[in-house]
Structures are given as C-alpha cells and as structure tokens.
Amino acid sequence: MTSFLRRACLCVLAFSLYLSVSASGQSKQRRQSESDEPLLPTRLMVDATSAPEKILHATLQIPTGSGETTLVYPEWIPGEHGPTGPIVDLTGVEFFANGQRVTWRRDLKDMYMFHVTVPPGVKTLEARLDLVLPAPPQGFSSGASATARLDVISWNQLVLYVPGRNTKDIPFVASLKLPAGWHYGTALPVANEDNGQINFKQVSLTELVDSPVLAGRHFRRIPLTPEGPIQHFIDMAADSDAALEMPAETIDEYKHLIAETGALYGARHYRDYHFLLTLSDHVAHFGLEHHESSDDRVGERTLIDDDERWLAGGLLPHEMTHSWNGKYRRPKGLATPDYQQPMEGDLLWVYEGLTQYLGEILAARSGLWTKQQFLDEAAETAATLDHTPGRSWRPLQDTADAAQILYGAPAEFESWRRGVDYYPEGFLIWLEADTVIRQKTNGQKSMNDFCHLFHGGQSGPPMVVPYTFDDVVNTLNQVVPNDWRKFLRDRLDTYGPGAPLGGITNGGWKLIYDNNASKLTKDVEKTRHFVDARFSIGLALDDKGAIHDVIMNSIAWKAGIAPGMELMAVNGRRFTPDILREALEAGKGNGPNLDLLVVNGDFFKSVTLNYHDGEKYAHLVRDESKPDILSDIIKPAAGSKAANGN
Ligand SMILES: [Zn+2]
Q1: Which residues is 102 bridged to in the sheet?
Q2: What is the pTM of this model?
Q3: Which of 80, 262, 523, 534 is 20–30 Å from 332 (CA)?
Q4: Ligand 1 centre distance from Cα of residue 460 (Å)
Q5: From ligand 1's centre to the CA of 579, what distance in Å?
Q6: How confident is the model over 605-633, as pLDDT tens digits?
Q7: Which of 293, 296, 260, 302 has the alpha carbon at shortest distance from 278?
Q8: Residue 572 — φ and ψ, nearest 5°?
Q9: What is the DSSP code (8-state) at residue 161?
Q10: What is the CA(313)–ligand 1 centre distance, in A?
C-alpha cells in the first residue's frame, strides 16, 4: 500500500465462539465447516446504481442452515495492515429466512460480528445491507470511493460470512449492477453480462476480496502487452474524458515497466494484470495492492499535468511490485486465514520496505522517473530520516510492529513519534543490501538475484507462499554469504543517531544540503501546498502558515515553536512561503536574526532565531572516489529503451 501523505482483539473471541457453536453441530453450515465438504456458494448481488448518491445496496444468499448463527464483516483488510473494514458505514442490515424477517444482535465485544437465530428448516439466510460511502477524500479503501462519475467497488465492504473456515474455502458468486452507460475494469473473471448486470464466475471469498472493480462513465482501457501471453491493462476511470489522455510516452514507460518486472522477478504469479487507475479529486488518494490488480487512486489531472504525473510515477511500480512482494510472498504474520484475525506487521520492512525500494528502482528503470528524479527522491528520503529524532526512542522495528496504529497517526510530532518509517527506511536498508551484494560479488550479483530466488519460481495463477525472517536471511545468504542477520538486526533494532546511509555512500554518492531546492521539493511544495524548512530551522508547515511539525532540538524547537501553532509573520511582515524563504537567505552569514511571530491558540508569541545558514535542501552528489553503483542499479535490465540518463 502507498499513502500520498508524505510524509489500522476480538478475534480470539470470534474464534472461540465459532468453536463452541460449531461443537453443537446444529446447522449444516457448521457441520460442513467441521468437515472438508465444499460449501455451497454465497450469492452476492450488489446494486451500485446509486453510487453517485454515495450508497451501495447488497443482497446476500448465505447457506447457513438453521440454528444459532454467527456472521462477520471483514475487519482486517489485506494490504491495509490494520482493522480498517468500514463497519461504521455498514447500514440497512436486515436478515430474512423464507421471506420472513429475522432479528439480529451485534456481539457486545466484537463490533464486526452479528448473531442471528435461523428458523428450523431454513437452509439459506438472506442478508440485505447498505454501504454508505464517505465524502471526505481521506483514508484508504474505506475512504471516499465514489463520485458522480465513477466508483471503486471493494467487495470486502459488501459481504458477511460465517467464520471458521479459511476464506479461500468459502465460495462466492457475485453480480453487479452499475449506473447506465458506465464501463468497468476488474481482474475478477466475468461469466456473462445480462441486461445491465455483470455476472461473475464463482470464486473464493479470498479471490473476491482481492479483485475490486473500477467503474465509471469516463473510462479508458490501455492494453500494455497485447501480444501476450499474459495480458496487462491500465483500466482508468476519471471525472472527465480529458483526464484520461495519458501521453503516448507515458504509455510506453508503463510498457517498459511490465518488461522490467519480468526481468527483475523472472516469473509472474497472476493470470492477467489490471492497474485500476482512478483519476478524481474527490476520492481518497492511495494505492492498494492485489494479486492480479491494484487499486490506484490519484488526482484528476495527474496524467495531464507534468508535475503531478512524475510525482505519481512511483505509484504503479510500487503497487505492481506487491503482486510478488506482499501477495505471492507474504510474511507469515500477514498471511491470516480470514479477515477477523489480527495481522502481525513485524516484517513490513520487507513487505513495504523492499517494495518501496524495488518500486523506485523500477520507476527509474522503466523511464517513469529520470535518473535525477530518482536521486532527488533518494536524497529526500535520506535527509528526512536523518532528521528523525524519534529514532532515539523508537527503533525501526517498532514502526512495523505498530503499523496498525501508525497509519492513522497525525502529522504533528511526526519526526518525534515516527510514522510508518519502514517504507522510506526500508528503501535505504534494501539499497544498502544491494550495494553490499554488488561489492562482495564485484558486480556479478545484486538484489535482482534475490528477487529471482525469493519472488520468481514458476509462473502461474495467484498463490501465497508465506515467509519468516529466517527465510529472508537464508535467501540473502544464497545470493552471497554474509552476516545478513546482524546486518538487518543492526538496522532494525538500534537507536540511531542518524539514518542508515550506507547504501548511498557505498553507491558512490553523498548526501549534501544547499540552498537550491530540487525539482522534487519544489513540485511537492507546489502541489501539496507545503513549505519545507525542516533542514534549516526545523519547520514543516503549509503555505498558510499552519505548523505541522517541528524537528525536536532544531533551532525553532529550542525557541519554543511547536506543532499546531501558526506562523503569522516573518521579520515583521505577514507570512508567505516566499517571505520566509527570502528571510532565511537574507539572514545568511552576517545577516539579521530571524524574527518569527507565531500564534498558539489565542495567544501570540514572538521569537528570535539566531540562524544564519540560509535555506537548506537535500541533494545527492557524486563521490568520485568510488564507483557509481547507484547508476548501475537503475539501468534498465530488460533491454528496453527506458530513458535513464538525464
Ligand atoms: Zn505498499
């Protein structure tokens, strides 16, 4: 998963309830659960014709049998690494048996669990439910998903199921009605279309949840590998036709991406692959991975605005990488048998951290990013993590262990709290591992070899091969013998003081700061309405002056400025981003001190910073005393003509 902010137990109870009820053997469903008999499929009909009005209707025919029955709503959502199933938006819940309404009661301790008594002789319980869709474009798949012109259907939000079986053994037959004139894309196999209703083939609940549908009035499909044998598509829905005009060279770059993934992994673990790309300013912006597709949501003008397009250039490579790293190979603690059992995120520095690394080098290898863009991203990552005082109390390992609470963490005090740092710091650690492999083998081997061993194997339909920390260490040792256990634990369990920059220095580059913002910094500041003074006076603020973070022990922090305050004036003049930047430069050397007026709630405060080092922005520059391994890493590997040198 990827968030666009630059910077989600009761399942033991659920399980024991299932066991105790199951032991009574009162219903066919539960007797089936005890045995290995295949279940009859649950039939799910979703009416999305009111998606523009922000409500979806679903009807389920669930083969429960009679008696005390428990039904659950998915809580722990794959790829979101937390209990993010939108239970609060599940409304209109009603149950019927032979057309008669059956009462239900929610479990008092598990908000995702419903108890129903199914009358004798009844074999199928009908459930009707509505999903009301939130309007604010925040969160992940439980965030805003529908506009007047499009909708993303996440099946986990529209199902109930009887717990106790692995969801891969619970069959579903789904159908979907869309608003008239809408088109759709999905990896879910279609049986037929009938009178405006899409009827899907029978799949497991696992496959259903793994196969969202993107639908919309303004829709375009771009085939990336029409020659096959495995098809790749970009299925796009937008709030306008104009937004679908992906430049021809960008299409070529995504074709390169497919070729580069083939070269990197050596096998594909999907039948076909669909990027489901939503272009709207009124949905949540993020990426969510699946085996055979990804749910990628960006702003409406992302493809047609040069700055937005390249800023989003890492998204699809990241999400597609998850098909291998996260879906096919999955940490044991994240490979849960259903959607109710809590996930363990301790290996997210592999699941997300390695994906961050591979996604970024794939963006560069395929030409979606130029070499300079890759370097600027790496500099930004390194500098941010090198200005993260929170590492003095929170080792990187804990950011993974606590993932389910950190995804929702506020921006305030981010550098002290630490966020989901296993993404960017995972980039640095895996970059360093790559350089170590290359150094130890004189360039004969690299992380490409690790990926072939770990993620390759036999091509075929989706499957999950769980792994442990030891499996990661052992595979690294297969590539080149080294004390990889110590290498990794040193970087996961220690307290700084600085970020792990060995990959950059081994790679023949140096992290430096000067007063010229990179194009990346400028574009992020412009498009995200952000002002980056973190590396100079320690302030991260928006372009209206709201202070999101103050780096602890920076000069601004020592002067008493804190997150949540607002910067009103700089050297006696009303704050604007340019006024602040110009004042920082004017104070250089023997220039004047920096006078800042801040407001803390209703109270104003004036502080003087004895600061004279000007603006500071991060860059990578060549260290000519060493070979340029970084440039080797991002060279195209598939023989494609990806732009890579400018
Ligand atoms: Zn991810």
Answers
A1: 95
A2: 0.93
A3: 262
A4: 22
A5: 37
A6: 999 999 999 999 999 999 999 999 999 99
A7: 296
A8: 85, 0
A9: B
A10: 14
